[in-house]
Amino acid sequence: MNINQLKCPNCGADLILDPKDYMLKCGYCNAIFSAERDGNVQNVTINNYYNQYDGPQRQAAPGPQPVQFTVANTISPKSRTVALVLCIFLGTIGAHYFYAGRVGMGILYIFTCGLFGIGWFVDVIRILMGSFPDMNSNFITQW
Q1: Rounded alpha-carbon distances, angstroms, from residue 132 to 10, 88, 128, 141
Q2: Of the candidates 127, 134, 126, which has an alpha carbon nearest to the alpha carbon of residue 97?
Q3: How far is CA 102 from each of CA 45, 72, 115, 134, 142, rounded to the nearest angstrom?
């Protein structure tokens, strides 16, 4: 198991390796875990020690614990130029949404004439600014 794939058993967040004392620390709940080094980083023993860190003591709340997800938006393979041209000329029927793979919004634009023109205008600005997402929530930023 790679050390970068370790998750905190308390909250599910990624564990961070502190190279100074070779301790794994949770980036979310500040729990500290010990790691044994035997030449490589593949053998890691996790033991939870709440009282070995400096800072306020945290008690686990009853019930489900919050899980921290890291969302890394990547760049979409779609072209911003194509999306902008489709939006300007066929935006009231949602052609730019069909191009981005968001069929539901495209159908909504067909029946509402681009959300009565307001949605069409906002989408032109969003595409120009590079904040228009495709179906995988990746921003269409490449010209």
Answers
A1: 36, 14, 8, 8
A2: 134
A3: 45, 20, 15, 7, 18
In this model, does residue 130 exceed pLDDT 80?
Answer: yes
CA distance between the termini of the chain: 40
pLDDT at 52: 46
Element holding 46 (H helix, E strand): none
More confidently predicted of 94 and 69: 94
pLDDT in tens, 12-39: 777 777 666 666 777 777 677 665 544 4
Tokens of 73: 């938006």
The Cα 25–Cα 27 span in angstroms is: 6
Any residues with CB less than 8 A from the CB of 6 and at least 6 apart, and which?
14, 15, 24, 44, 46
Answer yes or no: pTM beyond 0.70: no
